[in-house]
Amino acid sequence: MSPAALARTVDHTLLKPEATTADIDAAIAEAASLGAYSVCVSPSALPVEVPSGLKLTVVCGFPSGKHQPEAKAAEARIAVAQGADEIDMVIDLGAAREGRYDDVEADIRAVREAAPQPIVLKVIIESAALSDEAIVGACRAAEAAGADFVKTSTGFHPAGGASVHAVALMKQTVGDRLEVKASGGIRSLADAEAMLGAGATRLGLSATRAILDDQVAQGSY
Fold it and tell me: Which positions are catalytic residues (predicted)?
């Protein structure tokens, strides 16, 4: 995979609570200069202008997921109205841990209805905080609710971020019907390549430049 091809798998991400308007503008400019697929920001960053060819991803119910479905739906609807191309929503982890997958599905469906296709909906299941059984159940709920992607992590949970095991399990569960986004703790070229090798088609990165520079330095393409 060439550096340009790797860059096109990346949602270049800035979700720090302390991010300023200048920080967000810089992240957008960096995403565009690196050839990333999208830039991922918080809802309060909107509205923003992004260059042609760069998608705008906005998080929803972030980072805890402990919001009423109606609140998540409203947040997604506002984000789309303000220019979001893609929505990354967080599920209610407690519902997944308790096996209440119908509730997980209803939560996701509320956001899907508020942000219908062609808006891309990615569902963050916080895989490091779930058992394998719950990962599978959450992925199945996302598929049933009409999501486009399942995503490993917010990057904010103390349990950790993406793992090769979780990505592989998620890919095994959704097959080619949905795509898998790996995010959280991917800080090296080796990490990125491992996640793509396990079945991810999109990466959530904040260290995009460092990873691409490392790829060029190593000539690993």
Answer: 88, 151, 181
Whether pTM exceeds 0.85:
yes
At 83-126, the pLDDT tens digits run 999 999 999 999 999 999 999 999 999 999 999 999 999 999 99
CATH of the domain spanning 3-218, picked from 2.60.40.10, 3.40.50.1100, 3.20.20.70, 1.10.10.350: 3.20.20.70
> Among this protein's residues, is 122 annotated catalytic?
no
Catalytic residue among 11, 72, 88, 171: 88
**70 is written with which tokens?**
């109606």
Catalytic residue (choose from 11, 151, 171, 191): 151
**Domain boundaries in the chain?**
3-218
Does position 28 have pLDDT exceeding 90, yes or no?
yes
